[in-house]
Design goal:
Layout lengths: L1 E5 L4 H12 L3 E6 L10 E4 L5 H11 L3 E4 L7 H17 L3 E7 L9 E2 L10 H16 L4 E5 L2 E2 L5 H11 L6 E2 L3 E2 L2 E2 H12 L5 E5 L5 E2 H12 L8 E2 L13 E2 L2 H4 L9 H4 L1
Parallel strand pairs: 1-2, 1-4, 2-3, 4-5, 5-7, 6-15, 7-12, 8-11, 9-14
Antiparallel strand pairs: 10-13
Helix pairs in contact: 1-6, 2-3, 3-4, 5-7
């Protein structure tokens, strides 16, 4: 059986590729600019804006599962239209689709969100992700839409890298004490995506860690784990900056967790 990982050269995608290969699946993966090193997957250059290329690759591989771990921030043509185009192609070739979405689809007005909550995005990225969810639910009702939060791991994680750069003084900025999320470890998230791919689950699933923490609190935990001086981390209030985006968004993953063998650890545990 072939598992196709869209965005396999990214932080999350690379871990999905690694785990799928270790589990014995035949793995294919796509990249936008350059493939990852190693022989864990067959690599294909794919731009989700190119419907013909998407169709060509899916048709040639005939995967049993397609996991869309791609991310191109607020690029509507990729994040929204490209994801919907991929769903159309997966449905055409009868492939199981697992699409990775984000807690950015929520405004933060209610803080805690379970799988039944409807998107109310307030940023272009959140709007693109919400549009992708809507299109996928209409075109591929048997697909899994997996919303997640901040993805943490080693230095490859953008959030961990930010903490290291701030502690070293090589980057300016601040970690906000009023910006709260439920981080998830990349290993747990990849394992949960693969597990969901081979179940009969469909629709929206939440895959976030059990613990809510501010971005500053997360930074302190990363610093302690990695031997950095946490006192060097600048802190601030996002509410005073005028930056767009929700402040407090906590994904409630208990309903999804009850279906899974994979345990979604909280940040207090994995850091």
């Amino acid at each position: 059986m072939t598992v196709l990982v869209i965005g396999g050269s990214g932080f999350l995608g690379a871990e999905v590729v690694r785990q799928a290969s270790a589990a014995g699946y035949r793995v294919a993966a796509t990249f936008a600019t350059r493939p990852c090193d190693g022989s864990e997957a067959m690599w294909h250059r794919v731009d989700l804006r190119d419907g013909g290329r998407v169709d060509e690759v899916v048709a040639s591989l005939a995967p049993c599962v397609v996991i869309n771990a791609s991310s191109d921030s607020a690029n509507w043509a990729v994040t929204a239209e490209g994801s919907v185009r991929l769903a159309m192609t997966a449905a055409k070739y009868d492939c199981r689709l697992v699409h990775v979405s984000s807690d950015a689809v929520f405004s933060g007005t209610r803080a805690r969100y379970d799988e039944a909550c409807l998107p109310d995005p307030i940023t272009p990225y959140g709007a693109a992700k919400a549009a992708a969810e809507t299109g996928i639910r209409l075109l591929a009702p048997d697909a899994v839409i997996a919303r997640t939060s901040l993805i943490i791991g080693g230095i490859q994680s953008e959030h961990v890298r930010l903490v290291h750069e701030l502690a070293a003084g090589s980057r300016t900025g601040a970690l906000f004490t009023d910006d709260v999320r439920c981080p998830v470890h990349v290993d747990d998230l990849a394992a949960a995506l693969l597990e969901l791919a081979f179940t009969d689950a469909c629709g929206v699933q939440h895959l976030a860690g059990a613990d809510a923490v501010s971005r500053y609190g997360l930074g302190v935990l990363v610093a302690q784990r990695d031997g950095l001086d946490a006192s060097r981390l600048p802190e601030g209030l996002r509410a005073t900056t005028g930056l767009p985006g929700a402040l407090d968004v906590r994904l409630d993953s208990r309903a999804t967790q009850a279906k899974l063998r994979t345990r979604l650890r909280g940040v207090q545990e994995f850091l």
